Every structure is written in structure tokens, then in C-alpha cells.
Amino acid sequence: MTDIPPRTLFEKVWDEHVVVPETPDTPAVLYIDLHLVHEVTTPQAFDVLRRRGLAVRRPDLTLGTLDHSTPTTPVRTLRDLAVVGESAAGQVRRMQENCAEFAIELLAFDSPERGIVHVIGPELGVTQPGKTIVCGDSHTSTHGAFGALAFGIGTTEVGHVLATQCLLQRRPKTLAVEIEGPLPAGVTAKDAILAVIGEIGVAGGTGHVIEYRGSAIRAMGMEARMTVCNMSIEAGARAGMVAPDDTTFEYLAGRPRAPQGAAWDAALARWRALASDPAATFDRSVALAGARLKPMVTFGTNPGMVVGIDEPVPETGSDGRFRKALEYMQVSPGKPLTDTAVDVVFVGSCTNSRLSDLEQAASLLRGRRVAPGVRMLVVPGSQQVKRDAEARGLHEVFLAAGAEWRESGCSMCLGMNGDTVPRGKLCVSTSNRNFEGRQGVGARTVLASPLTAAASAVRGRIADPRELFDGRGEERH
Amino acid sequence: MQPRTDIEPLREVVSRTVVLPQDDIDTDQIIPARFLTTTTREGLGRQLFHDWRYRPDGTPDPEFVLNRPDAAGCRVLVAGNNFGCGSSREHAPWALLDYGFRAVISTEIADIFRGNALKNGLLPIVVDGDTQRWLLAHPGAEVTIDVAASTLELPTGRTVEWPLDAFGRYCLLEGIDPLGFLLQHAARIDTFERSRSWTP
Ligand code: SF4
Questions:
Q1: Closest to A248 in 3D by CA, of A329, A130, A393, A151
Q2: Burial of A52 (C-beta count, 10 Å sphere; 0-12/13-18/19+)
Q3: Tens digit of each residue's pLDDT (9 = 90 or more) over A466-475
């Protein structure tokens, strides 16, 4: 064993899954341990299997859910969910037929375990350290928070994994992102990852797998680490990972699909060996001082166009796109965003829809009201999150404040299910993409943390959450 | 045994060009998200560049380049800088292919779009600024794209190379799609599964 050179977390997971090594002419064949499938990026892949007479190689390593084009309007029973639009309904029906035909378990509308694909994997305990995990969705990087190698794939590749449980991949490079803590009060994991993207740029991670390291990351709970890894793709990275530790193991212990008994002990021994060796080297590294981070807000039309909430929007950017983005956002350079009027506030998406995210938003809304004229949607990431939040009474806080409390789904993150931001309106959103038109044709998106989103809902303008702290304990996030 | 395949071998594209000079054409412009509820890959060509191609009342905008008579039959799209950024939706190359394009030329093509395009037999051709400027200034120029040599030849006789990795070239020339290639490794995958020290 001693002749193995020091390796990073990524390299250990990669090496263990190489079926056929890469050559200058051909990519590696990489084995996939978990394939998550949803209704939008799979129907054409199932068609390929049918056309070529192929079976799903490992239905037992494949898990389906409905999330992207599913409605989140509150219903009495989950069977009442009517999908908005005929085409979306057809897509949902096709997903049900495909999963039945190919013997894949589907967490459908009536499943209490349904939710956004990147929320339910961890919640159920199928997301585990050391696994390779893929899904036809770029935010699959979320699962890297557990020390899994997890990344998004296109529909053709969904077909590859269904048929062979493998993918053709060139080995990416490694990038260490070190954040030394602690994070100041009011600064969350979302702010940290927005600051990272602002620092390295939206293409800064291209061709790399990021490993998030440092005391600020170690101090984070699993949900915060998921928020960080979720947005790796927004920095252009293939994936993001955090070495598994006791926080990880505590989160997984007892989850319905985590290993149990002797299998748990064996898994634990294996997982403990995954962390990067002390002498391992990365192709690149970047360091951020956690103590200097602030609540962050985006001002432009990509997640790299981001400033501290009390900092002025820059006067110049590198190219013509910068001006165009400011015009689209109707933002003036040289001033902070904090006076900008808000029309919609969205708390949700695979970035920030877990219990701790909702608790953060609720902590600022308790005893307060959403400002007149502002529509606030709170969309839990899964039915489980919804139940947990309701058990803690968070829904009452949101409803009393005048916010909407919805069924789980992607909702206003991409506006495929009818939840959209009207043209020209400004939405403070806890999601991950602020592209032109992402939340609706002509919608203006400002990405922020759940704390900043809640503070902005209360003030009716983009607001620094720290202004609302009144010693009730919100500062301990 | 030659694996069964979904794509035809592609050695050469000879065609006039259509020019869309905009920079940063992202996947939401190529195919807006509201059309992603489809369950097939056919027919997406009708929604290609939808919000540019059709007026709000649904009628084709006669000013838009794809709606002009001389665009018919063109298989090569010349775009401004940085083509294809945004989401991982494979619907973007499907829409271009369904419309009839076999190649897109730009100075920069986003990673995920590039990979998705190649897997579907759409050539992502990255050229230098001079070549692109010439192409933008000469809409309808007849170009010849050679896959084996990965070159692009202009009617002026000027020939430039574009980057194509060995595996991509092999798959295009032989009409081997990566799934066929993977299926050839079935025995190695069996062995891998049997020899693992743990099971997922
Ligand atoms: S919440 Fe948004 S980013 Fe996440 S999976 Fe759904 S659509 Fe994608």
C-alpha cells in the first residue's frame, strides 16, 4: 500500500471507478454508482434504449423523481397535483411510463419522499461518500458535499449510463478552494460560494473539480456544504467536493437508505480514508478569508457579477456584456443595490430550500410582515423538508408574514412549471442562476442568501439582513 | 462486431453559410426553456431561435435571417463570439440539427454545448477572429469542412484548422456513437462489477 503516491479526495474516488483507463485517443470508462433521473432530460434517452433494444443495466442503482415541470401550488392531497400545460403533463406521464417499463423506482407525486432531485438524494441517504453520482442536471455537483464525485450530464450520456452504468470521461484537473473561518454573523454558505464565484469568475473552474477546504467549510453543517457544492458549476467547474468527516457521518447515520449495522461500520472505515492525503497536491488553489466575507448579491446576468451588499456596483466590467447586463437589470453603477425596489422574493431551489435555509428565512420573518406589493414564495426542496418545517411551525411564520407556502419542486428557479417572475420585475432569489429570462421572459434576478431574501421581503427593497438583527439570536447562522 | 449506432458517418460538409452575428448566443436563445417539456428530439427545429424568429403574434419575422429565402438548405451557421453558453440542455444541438445545420462556427464555443454537439454529429468549429470576420462579412459563402483533416476551407482558397480531439474525430468518421463504443466494453464492465471491494 505504501507505494501509492499521496492523492486528493477526487483522485481517490476517480481511481476507484476507472473501468478502462484513458489513452491519448480515448477517454476513460468510468463506473457510476448512482444515477438520478427526472422528467426533463430523460425521455429521449429511454427512446434510444428502445430503438436499440437495450435494457437498463442497473435499475437498482437508478432512482427517479419528478421535480422540474411539477406544480408547487398547495393541494389537499398530492394526487390533486395537476401539471401546468399539456406538454409538461405529457412529460410527467412519459416519465412514469418509462420508469415502469424499465423497472426503475420513481418517487412520483404521491410519494412522501418526492422532491428536488438534489435534495432527496442526501435526505434519503443514497448520496454517500466515495460514490460516483450523475444526473441530467448541472447542479448534481450538490452531492459532492458528502465527498462523492457528482456531476451533471447531457441526455445522450443519460442513455449511456442507463445502458452501461458507465460514462466516457477525460480526467479533470483539481482546484483547491480554501476558506478559513469563521464566517461573520449574517454571512451564510450562499454568500461564501457567491464570493468564490466573484473571485475566480464564471469560467474560473472550467475543466476542474473543486475541493472546498478550510476551517469555514469544516464548521459548516451538511446543508450549508450542499449550498456551496451546488454552485460549483456556476464557476464553470465540473464538480465540487468536501472531504467527509464526522459531520457527514452524523448526517447520514440512520437515513432510510444509508448502510445499516455491520455494513455501516464497513462503510465508515472506507469513508474515513477518503480525505485528501496531507501531501497531496492540487493543480491550482485559491484562498479566501472567511472573516472578510459579507452578505453577497448579484447585480448582473451571471453569478460572477456579484458584490457585497453594502458595496457599490462596479463602474466598469471587462467587456460590452457588462453594460448590456446592467441595462437589462436596470442597475446603476457606482451605487450599492440596497435601495432597489423588490417585486418578488423566492426562497427555494436545490441551492437553498432545505430546513436550515427555511429556518434562516423564518428567523427574520418571525413577527414581521412581507412589505406591501411584494410577492414572496417559499418552496421547500422536498416533501420531507416541508413536513419537517411544518413540525417546527415555520409555515405559520411564513403565512403569518404574508408569504406563500408551497409544495416542493424547482418552481421559480427556472419557471418551467408556471411559477414565473413577470417581465421587468425584480426578484431576490435564493436560486443559482440569474441569466436573462431564467425566471420568466424579461425577469430580473438578484441572487442572495435566504437571510438577505427574507430581509428584502420585509423591507420591500434589497436589504442587508444584519440591519434586521435585534438580538433574538438570528446572528448565529 | 461493429456496434450498432445512431449516427451516420460524417466526413465532409459542403454548404453555403447563414450568418447570425450576435455574441454570446446562449442555450436559452437557441431553444427557450418553455419548449423543454417535449419528450422527443424531433421537431425542435421549429422552435430554434424561437423568440428571434417569430413575432409576438406567432408569425415569422421576415427580417430574421433564417426566414429569408436564401437560408433554405444552408447547413453551416456562422455566429458571433462565444456560442452556446448556459444550461446543459441537449435540446440546443438537437434543435440546430433538426433545423438542418451540421456545423456551427464561432471564435469560442461553450464546453458543455461542444460536447453535446459532437455526440450528436453537429460540428462545433472554433476559428480565429480573422476567419470569423471574413465569414461574418460574406453571408452565403460556400465553405467546405473536412472532418478527417479538421479543416475549414473558404471560397478564397484559405484553409484553416479547427480543434477536434482524436476520439471525437474517430466517432464522427466511423459513425460510431459513444454508446456503441461503451457497449463494446461490456465484458470489462462485468469484471469491474464482480471485482469491487464494496457494492453501492
Ligand atoms: S432547483 Fe433549479 S437548479 Fe435545482 S434542479 Fe431544479 S431547476 Fe435545476
A1: A130
A2: middle
A3: 999 975 544 4
